[in-house]
Amino acid sequence: MVAEVLLEAVMGVDAVAWRDQFGAIPPEEALVHNFVLWLLADLFDDLVEQPGATDLLMRETFGSMAATSEQ
Question: Which of 1, 3, 33, 41 fits a disulfide with 54 by CB distance 3.0 to 4.6 angstroms?
Fold first, then answer.
């Protein structure tokens, strides 16, 4: 299931909507999704040669979303 979610995302499909059609995500699968996100973040950090780049990007993104929602 996790591999198919990644494939759908790479193909440009809304991966969340695609996964939702199969019902609730069991805890074991959710844990695997978290590990995949962690590995992708680590890959991104390595590709840009900056440890913590993903963390900085996410903080900026969520910070700007919070600022937008407060207006």
Answer: 41
